Amino acid sequence: MTKPVAVVTDSTSYIPQELREKYNISVVPLLVIWDGVTYRDGIDITPEEFYPRLATSKTLPTSSQASLKDFMDTFSRLLDEGYDILTVVISSRMSGTIKVAEQAKQELGADNIEIVDSLSTAMQLGFQTLTGARAAADGASLAEAKALVEKARENSGFLLTVKTLEFLHRGGRIGGASRWFGTALGIKPILEVRDGRVEPLEKVRTQRRALRRMIEIAVERTRGRHPIHLAIGHINAEEKAREVMEQITPMLEPEEVLFTTVSPVVGTHVGPGGIGIAYMTGI
Fold it and tell me: From CA 139, how far away is CA 118, in angstroms rounded?
């Protein structure tokens, strides 16, 4: 008899609370360190608290991978409840979180924990996680759910535009877009997550043009590849993000549309004003 599968992800996935509860998704927080204090992402510090402070603070936060204790506690609880565990986490090229998850698995000696590198973050990670959780809810085995997550990884994407490359540059998450840094005054970059890192795609002169071009790219990449799952995420830029959602939704006719606020850990590296489009097709 196939054991039930529980799905674990990290706090950068931004899956809405109602969906986490519906599909029994456990979330392990990454960490934000600010002025010597460590906060659990989305638990001890929320976006509503974080971004106003970021706008006025003379010091800037840093981030850290999830803790071994949090993974150990989560895995132990689910194993005790009789589950096989599928874990989907932020890109290994953005965070050491996957290594912590693997260490927790090793220390527990549990061969019924599978760990998938999403090679992304935000709702591209979220859609992969939801794909596994929905499969598990339909009775899929651990191997079947993992295979679907890997398929989702290959059929998803994440585009974003930022007000400045400063935050990505400082945090070392900028990838090939580093060549734009320092010459990007007046430039609004369009970026994508590619091979697990934030990489440059195009650069334009205004934010309005960047948002319009980002929508065009998403439409081009998803054309004819239904069903489409769509998510718009923002960093303290709700009004403009909702405009993006209103423009792109009728173009794509997605099966699912989610609107999310980016949590402090990714906000630390992207900075206020960032807006992203995540999509998944054919699943």
Answer: 22
Confidence of residue 176 (pLDDT cuts 50, 70, 90): very low
CA diameter of the chain: 60
Instruction: Indicate whether 171 pLDDT > 90.
Output: no
Polymer length in residues for the chain: 283
Q: For 163-172, 179-188, 207-216, which range has the lowest pLDDT when averaged over its residues?
A: 179-188
- Show the tokens assigned to 190: 């369009």
Instruction: Please state, in angstroms and rounded to a whole number, the distance separating the CA atoms of residues 276 and 160.
Output: 4
**Residue 120 CB contacts under 8 Å (≥ 6 apart), including other chains:** 90, 91, 128, 153, 156, 158, 193, 196
H runs (alpha helix) in the chain: 17-22, 47-56, 68-80, 97-108, 122-137, 142-154, 166-171, 207-222, 238-252, 264-270
Q: What was the pLDDT predicted at 182?
A: 45
- Backbone region of residue 242 per phi and psi (left: phi > 0; alpha: psi in -120 to 50; beta: other values): alpha
More confident residue, 191 or 171: 191
Q: What is the mean pLDDT of residues 173-200?
A: 70
Beta strand 228-234 with 275-281 is antiparallel
Domains of the chain: 5-30+65-154 (3.40.50.10170), 156-281 (3.30.1180.10)
Contacts of 174 (CB under 8 A, 6+ apart): 165, 168, 181, 198
Q: Which residues, other chains included, contact 185 with Cβ-Cβ below 8 Å and sequence gap of 6+?
A: none
